[in-house]
Amino acid sequence: MAEAPELRPQADRAVGAYKTLLRDYIDRRPSGTRQRLAEALGTHKSFISQITNPAYRIPLPSQHIETIFKICHFAPEERTAFLNAFRAAHPSQASALEADRAGGVRILEIEIPPFRDPGRQAQVAEAIREVAQKIVTLARDTK
Q: pTM for the whole thing?
């Protein structure tokens, strides 16, 4: 049996608040936005559903926030409201998020030519994302 909303811990309500905002903002975007987000994050549309549904406890990884802002073209007011809600839900991640934003996190774009097989193109994009993430992890670990 599901808990009544008033009995849920404060953290769950805070996560639900930013997920609700995210869902509402994405729902205002053109058709196909969820698919574009999934591709940009290197994941599946089901992950986008999980991070935008307050009923799921899957949190939004902070490293995806800037990509979401970029793909969805959040207005300044939307960014502020979302970031405030995210900080309330994840105070420990908020400092890392601020450091990333202030510290010059760069988003690189790599053009991938069209392939005859769109599935192969998606595989190439995912392989590039994985290698780039491994390089970043290695670079961070060699302080």
A: 0.62
In angstroms, what CA-CA distances link 22 with 26, 27, 32, 65, 114? Answer: 6, 8, 15, 10, 31
CA–CA separation, 35 vs 56, rounded Å? 19
pLDDT in tens, 26-43: 999 999 999 999 998 888
Whether 54 and 95 map to the same domain: the answer is: yes
| Structural domain contains residue 1 | no
41, 96: one domain: yes
Rg of the chain over Cα atoms, rounded to whole angstroms, equals 17
Q: What is the residue type of 59?
A: P
Query: In which domain, by residue range, is 88 found?
Result: 7-106
Domain tally, the chain: 2
